Amino acid sequence: MATCSISGVVPEEPVVSLKSGHLFEKRLIVKHIEACGLCPVTQMPLSLDDLLPVKTSAPVVRPRPPTGTSFPQLLQMLQNEWDAMALETFTMRQKMNALKQELAHAAYEQDAAKRVIARLIAERDSALEQLKNVDANVARAVESAYKSAPGAAAGSATGEAKTAPAAASGDSMDDGGKTKGIPQDVIKRMEAGQQRVGGGVRTSTVKQRQAMVRSDAQMKELVASEAQKLVENASATAFALGGLTGAESTIGSVALVGTASGAVQAYSVLNGKVKLVNQYQFGAGAVTAIATHVGTPGAAVVGTANGTVFSVSYDNGAAVASGDASAELQIGRVSAMQLSADVAAKAGGVVSVALHPAGDVAVASFENGTWAVFDAESARAVAVVPPATGAGTTRVALHPDGNLVGVISSGSNKLQIYDTATQSLLCTIDVCPEDPSAGISAVVFSENGLNCYTFDTTGAVKLWQLRKPDQPPKATAKLPISGGSRFGSLVVDASGSYVIVTVDNTCYIYTAKALAEVTSKSASSSGVCFAAIGGSDAHQTIVVSPSHIEVFTC
Questions:
Q1: Cα 322 versus chain centre, distance
Q2: Residue 68 lies inside a defined structural domain of this protein
Q3: Residue 145: inside a domain, yes or no?
Q4: Total structural domains in the chain?
Q5: What's 94's DSSP letter?
Q6: Which pLDDT score, from 0 to 100, does residue 209 have?
Q7: Residue 167 near residue 385, CB atoms below 8 Å
Q8: Strand, coil or helix: what is 272?
Q9: What are the angstrom distances between the C-alpha of 159 and each of 137, 164, 388?
Q10: Which residues lie below 8 Å from residue 182, measured CB to CB, with a gap of 6+?
Q11: 429, 454, 448: which is closest to 515 by C-alpha?
């Protein structure tokens, strides 16, 4: 006869499940059904009505009920304990098998997760190493390409590759026009600044701003505050957002507005409110350019129409950030830097400036196409790159780590990437191959340092991958502009989430990854505007027109 599916012995009173067909001892299966209502083998619902007694040819005769003091009573008690133990053992065996399966699955998932993490860490380290060595790799590729190009041996003086060697050792130019190398102490300070921001200062700042930034849907709901007229009826000519030293979460909380009278007005932008906290006069010439660095709060570089570059430090950020009505931004070091007299006579006014993460090193470009590296400590140009033939007005932008300089000129539709320390040309990006007559209005690097953005005279914003300079742009956005439109500014916000372009008095906001348009807002006053996203809560769009400053919040 078959055995019980629970106890494994021949049942005295066999019953069979109508649902599963398994054989059980009746007293055992009845106890199990009363306890949980499930089949102990299949775990399917089972009731007493689903049990069918099995008739045998020689049924077992049940003894009469024993008395409490008899040995049969003791045997029955032992039998009941055995039945309970058999049932419990069966249940524990089932649970043990289930736990074994769960443990094996968890161990497999943990092993898979470790493998994925190890692969991602290896890919990250590889990407960082590739980014670290991209300068040398691109330089070798460019050098090889030019060596193999027709006419390279002739040594054409007008080629793009020829502009770099002329300034590769550029310190300041002597009377004979010969350039000298950047001093080692400046190189060391530049490397220290690169290591500081590369070691997590800029990364933590960007992550902090990303945690505060609003979603695309919220950005579409920007609402303008009442426009505030610039102090002393000033006319704005340049604009940049800076950070406050000694205060948390205040990157982009100071609006530095350059004016036609040669002053820079500093406005705090806290909780949607704008307040003048100081202004400083930088001479008689108009302020033409201002730049800050997200990893170096409390520092700025200012360029003027008379060709002077100023390195500026400011402090008392904690008091300003606290909202104290009497708190003022304190101006610290102001270092005036100029080109040598013979070079300055031809260079003209400053067109653009960029601040190195070292804080006391800057790059500036001039009207005749010259660009130079300036050192605030020595108050001079430590490297000068003379203009290429037909270069025209030149603009520069610095990589967030400070190791690359992006250079564009009005006489070309190509973006040139140089090594900051050696001024050697690394690569050239053809920004408008479809329209050789188009020019480039601006260039800016992304906060992660992997990409750069350009805006050209056709109204196109383009996203370029620095590791693939020979590839087409990763993304392109076309602005609805007319032939008479005037460009204002092109910036990336401190979180690296949005790209902001201003043309005439309209501010266009795009996503940084795909250049998808988020929204556009027009200033309340006319004239070419400048704009950036910042403020104490990272989602205020500050727009500066020639006569007003206003804040859009969401």
A1: 28
A2: no
A3: no
A4: 2
A5: H
A6: 54
A7: yes
A8: coil
A9: 21, 10, 8
A10: 170, 171, 373, 382, 383, 421
A11: 454
- Please report whether residue 147 resides in a domain: no
List Cβ<8 Å contacts ≥24 apart for 274-278. Answer: 274/225, 274/228, 274/542, 274/549, 274/550, 274/551, 275/325, 276/231, 277/320, 277/327, 277/328, 277/329, 278/314, 278/328, 278/329, 278/330, 278/331
H or E element in which residue 542 lies:
strand 540-544
* Assigned domain for 325 exists: yes
Q: Tens of pLDDT along 241-252?
A: 887 765 554 566
**Ranges of the chain with pLDDT below 50:** 61-64, 67, 146, 148-179, 249
CB 435 within 8 A of CB 454: no
d(CA 549, CA 228): 5
Question: How is residue 197 annotated by DSSP?
Answer: I
Would you say 552 and 537 are in contact if contact means Cβ atoms under 8 Å apart? no
Domain end call among 56, 75, 91: 56
**44 and 167 both lie in a single domain:** no
pLDDT of residue 178: 37
Q: Which domain holds residue 19?
A: 1-56
- Spatial CB neighbours of 167, under 8 Å, sequence gap ≥ 6: 179, 383, 384, 385, 386, 423
CATH classification at residue 10? 3.30.40.10
Q: What pLDDT digit, counting tens, does each position of 145-200 carry?
A: 545 444 443 333 333 333 333 333 334 444 434 345 788 888 888 888 888 776 55
* Cβ(237)–Cβ(288) below 8 Å: yes
